[in-house]
TrEMBL record, chain A:
PANTHER family: PROTEIN ABCI12, CHLOROPLASTIC (PTHR33514:SF13). HAMAP family: EcfT. InterPro entries: ABC/ECF_trnsptr_transmembrane, EcfT. It is a multi-pass membrane protein. CDD domains: EcfT. The lineage of its organism: Bacteria, Bacillati, Bacillota, Bacilli, Lactobacillales. This is Energy-coupling factor transporter transmembrane protein EcfT.
Automatic annotation (TrEMBL), chain B:
GO terms for molecular function: ATP binding; ATP hydrolysis activity; ATPase-coupled transmembrane transporter activity. It is found in: Cell membrane. GO terms for cellular component: ATP-binding cassette (ABC) transporter complex. PANTHER family: ENERGY-COUPLING FACTOR TRANSPORTER ATP-BINDING PROTEIN ECFA1, HEAVY METAL TRANSPORTER. Pfam families: ABC_tran. It is a peripheral membrane protein. It comes from Pediococcus stilesii. This is ABC-type cobalt transport system, ATPase component. It comes from the Bacteria.
């Protein structure tokens, strides 16, 4: 479980690794918008080329990207099947009741699969090259304007980083409780879905109980260390834009502009 | 030497505890630069006392003065700046995502400048010998290492007093030994006042001063070698005898008579036993 959430960050020293997490976050969003706007082969081809360039400059082994796409293959196939059978318009090849296979349906199915894969690839670059800590720092910084609307940005960022920090601790705890219940004869792997869900209660309640007592102790420790809320705190980690960010931004703006220009180009 | 901590007639009642008092009219003073152990069995009120001194619990009656400042709602943050606390559970006091972030947490709260913060963090990590681990996450560290990080976090904000709230009780013997050694080193180098809440008698034997608490009352105070001689008191409070005293009494029962002063002197006892072995 830990691997899915956190083992993902691959430390490195590539162009992408050295970029500011805020720039990476915003540029990834820009790319996703461009992919959604694509509607021609040429636009998709360009988007694909951009993805390859981004992956290349992250110096992360292709295996990690395959690991990112693999768990979602089922979802991609399902949406493709729905598109194939329920898509309408264009030449009709086959039909039975409300189901039909049309040329537009087939085309859309392929477009959707490409969209999915491109978005997964680029967001995988983001999560593989940026530590959770950097991501929470980036979110804090990007949300700063909301401070004017009295949105508690510091507190939210601290909450996020504490939540991230306690995930491995609570996973360990879950395993301990699971083993403790098993040693008392609990069986979590047989019975119908309902009985299995009911058995989970015997894990969840001790887990909640312990999470609450941890939270209370952590709050005491934070107070003892002088935490009085976000006001007046300084920051240990300061984010800085560098040359890489400017280059990356220029590249992405040109790239997405060309995708938009190649729309409707057939 | 002046008193850095003065506790006067402190009384604490639990919100739902009825008439039972966790602390009952406790008075004590702690001299600047000393190492004091507060001992007692579970539920004796020793932890409540430590937390009250740091303003983490609101007591019903009494007064606490720390470094000349009387504890109140207005002064509590000033007092917390002077005290560094290390708690029992190594995991539940680790706030930062990595070692260096955790050490910096207290400094961030004080609003220390970023550049200065980086040099302080590097310094204190060196002092607790955790520099190589600075980018590690808490789940990649042992309990003893996490406690060392907690000590670094405390040292970073340069307190005058360190309170250990059973800081070694969840560690293995080796980790426990390392933490006590480290605290001892810091205590001597920086002339820090150490207040250690513990039920480990061998740890208390190392301190300058011992305060025994039972059922919310101070039962005995004094130098460890005098306090732990009192078998009657140890029985009532449920504390263990120091190892040397146990051995001394066992040998006495077997008819081996040793000089009385060795009862509280583990090194001396060892030496005496060696010598008598060689003579025999």
């Amino acid at each position: 479980m830990n691997k899915i959430l956190f083992g993902r960050y691959v430390p490195g020293n590539s162009f992408i690794h050295k970029m500011d997490p805020r720039a990476k976050l915003v540029l990834s969003l820009l790319y996703i918008i461009a992919v959604f706007m694509s509607n021609s082969w040429l636009a998709y081809g360009t988007s694909f080329l951009i993805a390859i360039i981004i992956i290349g400059s992250s110096s992360i082994a292709p295996k990690f990207f395959w690991d990112g796409v693999k768990p979602l293959i089922g979802v991609i196939l399902l949406t493709m099947i729905i598109q194939v059978f329920f898509g309408v318009g264009g030449q009709v090849y086959w039909h039975w009741g409300i189901l039909s296979i049309t040329s537009n349906g087939l085309l859309n199915a392929i477009y959707i699969a490409i969209r999915f894969i491109l978005i997964i690839l680029v967001s995988t670059v983001l999560t593989l090259s940026t530590s959770p800590l950097e991501i929470s720092g980036a979110i804090e910084s990007l949300f700063m304007p909301l401070k004017k609307l009295h949105f508690p940005v510091y507190e939210m960022a601290l909450m996020l980083s504490i939540a991230l920090r306690f995930v491995p601790t609570l996973i360990d705890e879950t395993e301990k409780i699971l083993n403790a219940q098993r040693s008392r004869g609990a069986n979590f792997s047989s019975g119908s879905i309902m009985t299995r869900l009911k058995k989970l209660v015997s894990i969840l309640i001790p887990l909640f109980e312990s999470a609450f007592s941890r939270a209370e102790e952590l709050a005491t420790a934070m107070e003892a260390r002088g935490y009085q809320g976000g006001e007046g705190r300084s920051k240990y980690r300061v984010l800085n834009y560098t040359k890489n960010d400017i280059l990356g931004t220029i590249f992405m703006i040109i790239a997405t502009m060309s995708v938009l220009l190649l729309r409707n180009w057939s | 030497m002046d008193n850095i901590i003065n506790v006067k007639n402190l009384t604490y009642k639990y919100a739902n505890g009825g008439e039972k008092k966790a602390l009952d009219n406790v008075s004590l003073s702690i001299k600047r630069g000393t190492w004091t152990s507060i001992v007692g069995h579970n539920g004796s009120g020793k932890s409540t006392l430590a937390r009250s001194i740091d303003g983490l619990m609101t007591f019903s009656d009494g007064a606490i003065t720390v470094d000349g400042i009387t504890l109140s709602d207005d002064t509590v943050w000033d007092i917390r700046k002077r005290i560094g606390m290390i708690f029992q559970n190594p995991d539940n006091q680790f706030v930062g995502a990595t070692v260096e972030d955790d050490v910096a947490f207290g400094l961030e709260n004080l609003g220390v400048e970023t550049a200065q913060m980086h040099s302080i963090v590097a310094d204190v990590l060196e002092k607790v010998r955790m520099t190589d681990f600075k980018e590690r996450q808490p789940d990649q560290l042992s309990g003893g290492q996490k406690q060392r990080v907690a000590i670094a976090g405390v040292l970073a904000s340069k307190p005058k007093i360190i309170i250990l709230d059973e800081a070694t009780s969840m560690l293995d013997p080796q980790g426990r030994h390392e933490i006590i050694e480290l605290i001892n080193e810091i205590h001597r180098e920086n002339n820090l006042t150490v207040l250690s809440i513990t039920h480990d008698v061998s740890e208390a034997m190392l301190s300058d001063h011992v305060v025994v608490i039972n059922d919310g009352k101070v039962v005995e105070t004094g130098a460890p070698k005098d306090v732990f001689k009192d078998n009657e008191m140890l029985k009532i409070t449920g504390l263990e005898q120091p190892f040397s005293a146990q051995l001394f009494d066992d040998l006495k029962q077997k008819g081996v008579f040793l000089p009385e002063e060795l009862k509280m002197n583990e090194k001396g006892l060892e030496e005496w036993l060696w010598q008598s072995l060689l003579k025999a």
